[in-house]
Amino acid sequence: MTTPPTIHRRTLLQTAVASLALGAIGFPIAAAQAANTTARMDDVLSTDALKALQAMMDAHVAEGYLPGATWLVQSRGETHVGTAGSFELGGGRPMARDTIFRVASITKPVTAALAMMLVEEGKLSLDGPVDALLPELAGRRVLKRIDGPLDETVPAAGPITLRHLLTMTFGLGAIMVFPEEYPVQLAMRETGLAPGFALPQMSSDAYMEKLGALPLAAQPGEKFLYNNGLDVAGILIERATGKRLGAVMAERLFEPLGMKDTGFFVPEEKRDRLPPQYGPDFANGGGLKVFGPQEGIDFTAPPQLDSGAGGLVSTVDDYLAFCRMMLNGGELDGKRYLKTETVAEMTRDQLTPEQKRGPHAEPFMAGGGAGWGLGMSVAVKRTKPWLVPGRFGWDGGYGTSAYTDPANGLIGIFFSQRMMDSPEPPRTYLDFWTQAHKAADG
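Below the sequence we write its predicted structure tokens.
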């Protein structure tokens, strides 16, 4: 891919972020809400902070920056929900508590939780080779250097494991060089494996066949390379169970947790609750445009691949159920989903300082304030008010963010349909998390 010299570096970065919109470019945040309040708001959350949050979101809608959003915060047993704007930019059906959103990369923690359920049952191994179920990953070759030719390789130093997949250190993923110029980047783009706002358009077997034909960009366990590990983990789950990922998630998580509006597509009877997806209109000088089937974004029919990295749709209340289970150490309403020690392992920083350094990892580490656990970001340093050590969750490039703060018993969920369009965290995310923590600190 060639880039005209007149294109400014920021435009290149914006384009890069748009191409990686499945997974927010790694800026952990937290949550709040405003209107539609349940009982005893003043007992727990600050009314002033929640009113300020509502005013900020209303202002983003009024200026045309945000079509609409729904948000939720739960703290110490109190739950509050707020909405702003509408389904369409500039008007239309108002956002509602039961609006269904494409949640993008906050799918990753759900996939990781399901994988760890199978680890507990002995159907998967966290640290054993995945070769038996994913023979495409056996006997891998690794590039001598990440920017080198595809035929200059060395043998892999060891096998790929589920831990490598969930920590995104298995050797392939987002290479943060733009415009794309490394041979392995171009090969991933040509085969449909490169992270982007469009989900992989192929079956799980085709995905693994194409991935298995490429050399790894780094040795297993060496570098953090975002995104693809969770798609591969989803395929591993399918092969371990003999079922589609969506079916296993529904059986093991969605149905028992009461997540009735969560899945990998929106059935016809619910499509009136799915707003259009908006993203950056770089070709026409900025602003927003609708991203639909012609751009590869279509959640109205079962996909070819249930993307464990970014394919779910959900509502704020559905996703809250998953967050509550994780906050409660793997148990909810008398049913245990994960052992407490498993949740602790998932929500600790798994990366070494070396793995967090460099251009391919640093954009996802919140300026040094976060690391990565099993399938999710984990706060390690309070470089921002919301980065409370131990806080875990992630962001979705379609406009979503969800985190759990065990130290303060706080869960925050922000869903919008405005895609990320810059290397910087969207101002909606920043406003949401700033006011959420002010509200909780009350």
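The longest helix spans residues 47-62.
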